[in-house]
C-alpha cells in the first residue's frame, strides 16, 4: 500500500495531520492527530516523508493577485454552497500555516477541499473513516487532514 499525508492547518492546537495507506480504493489510517502549530505538524509529517508519495493540504496553494481565484469560482458554480471560501475571507493562521508546511515538505503537494468533497457522491466512500476520526478527536481537524490525504492519493494517482 502507498503512503499519503494530509494536513489541516489552523491556529493554536487546531492543526490536523494524517498519514494513510492506499491501494486502489482500500485504505488504512496509519495516524491522525491534532497538534499545536505548523512546526509540530511539519515534524509529524516529516516522520513519514521518506515513504510518502504526496501531501494534501486543506488550504490555498495558489493565490490570485486580484479578485477571486478562478478554481474557487468554478467549484462554487458547479457545486454551490459556501464551503469554498474566497481567498480574502480566510483566517491568516490557516493560509500561513498551510503555506509554511507546503513550502518545507519535500514532496508533491495537493490542495484539497474536504468539506466540499464530503458533500459529493465521491466522498461517500470515505465518510465513515472521516466520522470516526472526528468522533475520536472531538473536532474536525483530524478528519479534514484525513480527507486531504485521500485527495492527495486520488490526485497523485490521477483517480
Structure in words:
This protein has helices spanning 38-46, 70-79, 92-104, 114-119, 127-137, 141-156; strands at 2-8, 15-23, 26-35, 52-57, 109-111. The protein has 159 residues and is an alpha/beta fold. The chain has one domain (2-156): Nucleotidyltransferase, domain 5. The protein has a 5-stranded mixed β-sheet, with helices on both faces. Helix 1 packs parallel to helix 3 and helix 5 runs antiparallel to helix 6. The longest helix has 16 residues, at 141-156. The model has no long low-confidence stretch (mean pLDDT 90).
What's the SSE blueprint?
Layout: E1 2-8, E2 15-23, E3 26-35, H1 38-46, E4 52-57, H2 70-79, H3 92-104, E5 109-111, H4 114-119, H5 127-137, H6 141-156
Parallel strand pairs: 1-4, 4-5
Antiparallel strand pairs: 1-2, 2-3
CATH level-1 class:
Alpha Beta
Rg computed from alpha carbons, rounded to a whole number of angstroms: 14 Å
Enumerate the spans where pLDDT stays under 50 for 5 or more consecutive residues: none
Q: What is the N-to-C order of secondary-structure elements (H for helix, E for strand)?
A: EEEHEHHEHHH
Structural class: alpha/beta
Oligomeric state of this protein:
single chain
Shape: globular
Main sheet overview: 5 strands, mixed
Could you say what the CATH architecture is?
A: 2-Layer Sandwich
Rounded mean pLDDT score: 90
Q: What level of helicity do the residues show? A: 40-55%
Total helical elements: 6
> Total domains, how many?
1
Give me a quick take on this structure.
This is DUF429 domain-containing protein. The protein has helices at 38-46, 70-79, 92-104, 114-119, 127-137, 141-156, and strands spanning 2-8, 15-23, 26-35, 52-57, 109-111.
Amino acid at each position: 500500500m502507498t503512503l499519503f499525508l494530509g494536513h489541516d492547518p489552523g491556529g493554536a492546537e487546531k492543526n490536523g495531520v494524517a498519514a494513510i495507506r492506499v491501494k486502489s480504493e482500500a485504505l488504512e489510517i496509519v495516524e491522525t492527530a491534532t497538534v499545536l502549530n505548523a512546526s509540530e505538524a511539519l515534524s509529524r509529517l516529516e516522520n513519514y516523508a521518506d515513504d510518502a508519495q504526496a501531501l494534501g493540504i486543506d488550504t490555498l496553494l495558489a493565490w490570485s493577485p486580484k479578485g477571486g481565484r478562478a478554481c474557487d469560482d468554478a467549484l462554487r458554480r458547479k457545486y454551490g454552497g459556501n464551503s469554498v471560501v474566497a481567498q480574502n475571507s480566510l483566517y491568516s493562521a490557516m493560509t500561513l500555516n498551510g503555506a509554511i508546511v507546503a513550502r518545507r515538505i519535500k514532496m508533491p503537494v495537493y490542495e484539497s477541499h474536504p468539506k466540499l468533497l464530503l458533500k459529493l457522491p465521491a466522498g461517500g466512500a470515505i465518510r465513515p473513516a472521516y466520522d470516526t476520526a472526528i468522533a475520536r478527536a472531538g473536532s474536525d481537524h483530524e478528519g479534514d487532514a484525513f480527507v486531504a490525504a485521500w485527495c492527495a492519493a486520488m490526485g497523485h494517482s490521477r483517480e
